[in-house]
Amino acid sequence: MEPTPAPDPQQPRALARLPSWLVGQVAMHANRIVGQTLGEEGVRKQHFAVLTALQEQGSVSQAALGRRVWMDRSDLNGVLNDLERDGLVARVRDEGDRRRNVIALTPAGGEALRRLNARVEAAQEALLEPLSGEERAELRRLLTRLRDHHAARRRASAS
């Protein structure tokens, strides 16, 4: 096992002991690594999220897609404009309700997502480089547990 690097002497020790602070710092590094990796393909994380949601869950209305990827209407519209321009998604009139569009992943979008998935996987490797396989699994388990706990509390308080 590699030695743990010394903490940044400029960082207040009281902050460095807070799990919330540490999670935020790791999230900042994760966002930078993934963002740079996706940027090499000319896309942003929001593009990747939309393509992933469409691949996993199929064609959907624009409003439902926004809820799936936690993106507001105006931001989603910009992302969809980019993806449609590049031929990765198509907006099709919903036959059941002509007032709305259904967003569909195109074959080119599926191919792009395969490339992006490989790049994002490499970014995950870079992020988790100092951890063993067992430590990675434990980190994933703990983060999932925290996420699920707080999501359940949020849903309960919203009802």
Describe this structure in words.
With 159 residues, this protein is mainly α. It has two domains: 100 residues, Arc Repressor Mutant, subunit A; 28 residues. 66% of the residues lie in helices and 8% in strands. The chain is built from seven helices and three strands, in the order H-H-H-E-H-H-E-E-H-H. A three-stranded antiparallel beta sheet has the order 1-3-2. Helix 2 crosses helix 6 and helix 3 crosses helix 6. The termini are far apart. The model has no long low-confidence stretch (mean pLDDT 92).
Features:
159 residues; 3 strands; three-stranded antiparallel beta sheet; 66% helix; mainly alpha; 7 helices; globular; 2 domains; single chain; Arc Repressor Mutant, subunit A
Short description:
The chain is mostly helical and 159 residues long. Helices cover 66% and strands 8% of the residues.
What's the helix and strand layout?
Blueprint lengths: L12 H4 L2 H21 L5 H13 L2 E2 H7 L4 H13 L3 E5 L7 E5 L1 H21 L5 H26 L1
Antiparallel strand pairs: 1-3, 2-3
Helix pairs in contact: 2-6, 3-6
**Rg, Å, rounded:** 19 Å
> Helix amount, in percent?
55-70%
Number of domains: 2
- Poorly predicted residue ranges: none
Mean pLDDT comes to 92
Order of helices and strands: HHHEHHEEHH
Residue fraction in strands = 5-15%
Oligomer: single chain
CATH architecture of the largest domain: Orthogonal Bundle
Note the total helix count.
7
SS-based class:
mainly alpha
The largest sheet, given as strand count, sense and whether it forms a barrel, is: 3 strands, antiparallel
